[in-house]
Amino acid sequence: MFVADKRCIMNQRRRIFFAIFGGYHLIILFFTFYIGSKNIDFGVLAKLYSKISLLKYGAILGVVLFLIDLVWNWIETKNAEKEQEALRLENNTLKAKVYDFQQAAKPVVTETPSPDSKKSL
Length: 121
Hints:
Structural class: mainly alpha
Low-confidence stretches: none
Radius of gyration: 34 Å
Number of helices: 4
Mean pLDDT: 79
Distance between the termini: 59 Å
Shape: rod-shaped
């Protein structure tokens, strides 16, 4: 059950992170289109081969960004579970208080057996 509240809206840090993450993927996409269009020219591919270390660093950056997102999501999930548990406990406490107030409002009925009922047994 997911309740629409302020947790649904991404905070500013999360938006900045996803802007960087999205920009990274767009750069990789354009790079692959560029390489795909230049596949006939061997000179361009030879120049790119000399800069293969940059591609490695870019791949490492993508993995790091992905891991950051996984950890961030895991932390948010744990915090949401803790908050949900706290709300559940508060709800149960309030239910118990309402029940106690209802029981206090009811008149106490004590039935005492009549003296005649003991003699008949």
